[in-house]
Amino acid sequence: MSINLDLPPELENQLCNEASQLNLTLSEYILRILSIRQVIGNPPKTGAELVAYWQSEGVINSRPDITDSQAYARKLRHEAETRERA
Q1: pLDDT at residue 49, rounded to an integer
Q2: Which of 4, 19, 23, 72 is the right S-S partner for 29, CB 3.0 to 4.6 Å?
Q3: Rounded to an integer, what distance in angstroms lies between the CA atom of residue 19 and that of residue 17?
Q4: What is the DSSP track for the chain?
Q5: What is the pLDDT of residues 10-57, one digit of tens each?
Q6: Which residue segment(s) compose the domain that 68 sits in?
Q7: How many domains does the chain have?
């Protein structure tokens, strides 16, 4: 389905800037915004609902290269603690 919208220039600029920060086209970004409106109106209320939401959005298991999350977190923490400051 195609819909034509006449956006005020200021709103169009804001949306374009936000889309570019996420490396999305304007259409992809607007579609993303519209698809999450139900979550905003009815946010997860329990941990189980939150996990189910993350799974449905592909966040959980989105990094198959990380096989041991605790070891990966320790590695990141160590790198952050030992990096040189500019």
Answers
A1: 93
A2: 19
A3: 5
A4: --------HHHHHHHHHHHHHTT--HHHHHHHHHHTHHHHHS---SHHHHHHHHHHTT-TT--TT-S-HHHHHHHHHHHHHHSPP-
A5: 999 999 999 999 999 999 999 989 888 878 888 999 999 999 988 888
A6: 9-82
A7: 1
Distance in angstroms (rounded) separating the CA atoms of residues 25 and 68: 34
Listed residue (29, 34, 32, 10) closest to 19, CA to CA: 29
86: pLDDT confidence band, cut at 50, 70 and 90? low
Note the pTM of the prediction, 2 decimals.
0.53
d(CA 54, CA 56): 5
Task: Evaluate if residue 67 carries a pLDDT over 80.
Answer: yes
Confirm whether 4 is domain-assigned: no
